[in-house]
Design brief:
InterPro entries: Zn-bnd_dom_prob (IPR025306). This protein is α+β, with helices and mostly antiparallel strands and 90 residues long. Helix content is 34%, strand content 9%.
Length: 90
């Protein structure tokens, strides 16, 4: 287990009760493929201080499954944009 030793700025965090003063690597299990993955401390700092996600948020998918989900979403948007066009070929 690694600890993030870089400076943190709790003022950038969106939290309900307590800010996160220390980020540590967390081992999680992917909800899609059920393989273990690590939610890295550096990634948590980015989520909570740059993207300002709620401090209770956690990654639920591994990198590969997240990448697949994003590709599927991108393809669905492309498909929807194609079917709403006025001139659809038969």
């Amino acid at each position: 287990m690694r600890y993030l030793s870089e400076t943190r700025d709790p003022r950038k965090q969106r939290y309900c009760i307590y800010p996160r003063n220390l980020y540590i690597d967390i081992q999680k299990q992917c909800v899609d493929c059920h393989r273990p993955f690590i939610f890295f401390a550096k990634e948590q700092q980015y989520w909570f201080e740059e993207l300002t996600f709620w401090i209770e948020a956690h990654a639920i998918k591994c990198f590969e499954c997240t990448k697949k989900s994003r590709e599927i979403n991108r393809l669905q948007i492309t498909y929807v944009n194609l079917i709403i066009k006025d001139h659809i070929a038969p």
